[in-house]
From TrEMBL:
Keyword Lipid metabolism in record: yes
TM segment ranges: 5-24, 44-70, 77-94, 134-160, 299-321, 327-347, 354-375, 381-401
Domain Fatty acid hydroxylase: 80-213
Recorded GO MF terms: glyceryl-ether monooxygenase activity
EC number(s) from the headed UniProt entry: 1.14.16.5
Membrane topology, as annotated: Multi-pass membrane protein
Keywords, ordered alphabetically: Lipid metabolism, Membrane, Monooxygenase, Oxidoreductase, Transmembrane, Transmembrane helix
Superkingdom of source: Bacteria
The species this protein was found in: Endozoicomonas lisbonensis
Protein name (record): Alkylglycerol monooxygenase
InterPro entries per record: Fatty_acid_hydroxylase, Sterol_desaturase/TMEM195
Keyword Lipid metabolism included in the entry's annotation: yes
Amino acid sequence: MDYIVFAIPVFILLIAIEIIVTIVRKKDYYRFSDAINSLSAGMISITSGILTKIVSVAIYTGLFSVSALWEMSVESLWVWVLGFLFYDLCYYWTHRMGHEINVLWAAHAVHHQSEEYNLTTALRQTSSGFIFGWVFYVPMAVVGIPPVVFFTVGLINLLYQFWVHTRHVPKLGWFEWFFVTPSNHRVHHGKNRRYLDKNYGGVFILWDRLFGTFEEEDELYEPIRYGTLKPLRSWNPLWANLQLYAELWQDCRATGSWKDKLTLWFRKTGYRPSDVATPMKMPDIHAYENYQPAVVRPLIFYGAFHFVLMIIATLALMGSYHLMPMWFNTLWVAVFAVQLLVIGWLLEKTKKLVILEAGRFATVAAALGITHLQIAVPASLWWLLCTLAVVSLLALSRVQYGETPQVHLQKP
């Protein structure tokens, strides 16, 4: 079982508290569809991790067993302290390269696509980081940091980073000098020229001060604009993960240079072959409105209800996948992705909503049927699904969903 499942209820509680504080303080730090999209990306990330984490586990343990230079005891406190510090240093370089190399940015950009900054942004994670992310932690295996230490301090590092994704906490005095805080991490998520590619630390901000990538937040003279220079402009969590890979592939096919076909993936972020496009210029980040297709209130309630069901289902899967065969996990990870995809579509499309939703229920029914061939599915679950589908489709058919207004440029 993945221990992150115990943290999910705490995350949800803290998000609820932040929403309440946001309302009480009359701030505009949350938008419903944006938050749902961030959480959807996070849910796809942790469920797909059921299938992909074996890559990082196998690679690290394999490298450790054949290349560790020193034998370190997990019973020694200094080994845990060294592992914690070493992991954060490796994370700094993983994170930094994730911003500086095309193919690594294609994975990491998911985390930056939200145009808001709140605790849901912390859970907005990539599903493809496992492909290259392990490379930067090889030194830890070679030095001899035991796998149990590596994976434990990695989890602690990840959990620490949750709380810094908020706009409600101001600067924290001396703490800012040594640790990553909400203030200096807000800078990291800014797309202002001043803030781009700064503050990469996970727990310690000392690495940024040491390697020259630190920038202090100046909300008075340089308010932060969140998101990416090339906005996603979609609530599709699958496209969020695939967008930049697709663009790199298009450039690879379009260029006539074999050198570029082979190297553009590992060139500096934003690089495009000269025979495909001119070098990217810094856009006016204040010249457009944030992505927000109009959604009527009944559809918001409808989407929220079904999204809560998906959270419950995700908790159930994450708490039991270690007891289930691989085919079962693979099937339901795919089904969950479809569910979140359609919920995202419901929040941005204006037509064929009932057809989309019927298709969503059909995928669940098909998956239950496949599961029933190997594992008996209780009759009560079938009745529950049928009842939910009928009631949901009838309710959705009565929603009067107006045309989505065109997003227009707003003069700065």
